[in-house]
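Example record used in the benchmark description.
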Amino acid sequence: MITLAELATKLGGAVKGNGNCVIHKLAALEEAGKGEIAFLANSKYRQHLQNSQASVVIISEADIPYCPTNALILDNPYLGFAKVAQLLDTTPNPSSGIAASAVIAEDAVLGANVSVGANAVIESGVVLDDGVVVGANCFIGKCARIGARTKLWSNISIYHNVVIGEDCLIQANTTIGSDGFGYANDKGKWEKIPQLGTVIIGDSVEIGAGVTIDRGALKDTVVAKNCIIDNQVHLAHNVQVGEGTAIAGCSVVAGSTTIGKYCVIAGQVGINGHISICDGVVLTGQAMVTKRINKPGTYSSGMPAAESREWRRTTARLRQLDDMYKRLSKLEKQLSSSKDDAKNNG
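Model output (structure tokens):
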């Protein structure tokens, strides 16, 4: 629990109303009640603000006249919501202490206040810095290193020699350091190419559930600091992801591709291998990127959903494009020839 005045002090905001009002929970604006705090970040939802029963609402100065209750006034209410959520977060740690069933190599180095959950395996040469939390059934391979205060939820596999920075959060069932898709073909037989690089994850990176990040073939796969990666993403071998980039769910990046800083990649995006994407690029949902992008901006290629009859008509016409192009080219040549004849006869 925390008072409105305490929140204002911690977040650098102003108070409207009773600063002694006590808050214990976050809630949606239209559903919040006594003891709960909500937020308004978009003016089109003001009708919910005017009828809100929340004890406190996080708003900007522009919404003060419309707020009937106590308020925390911030320049960026959505950011304020995130920070209040952190303060009121009751999510338990993935583990606490060292479970009796954990298997930890004798030469593994564990810092102060490290926790390792039930049935986790920590192999030889591993270093877990201060405050690392390893959930149940995790596997940490030989000589891997995990930075201070990083948390791993359950059933995560961290392969050998992987390096993970400080203050990272990795959700359940993620795999980091698995072999990249490297093979040579010998007259129809696939010969495996051992993947000799590793994966390096920077500080303050958050990785969702069911993500796969492959180790490099020769050089390393790298995710720079302050990146966020959603569920079910796959980064193939040797991929480089720049600082501050966000990748939404079910997107796939093929091998040896470099993604710049502060890019935003929406869901179900496919990015081809051996290309580069510069800083500040936004890829909208289901975009397919086959060539390098060297200019910041927003890029799209996915086709929005349409009524089935409309979609079938559009698809049928797409199949006729080549024929239409040939007919149009023929007509243009005929028109050009007619103009030339008219000019010569004039």
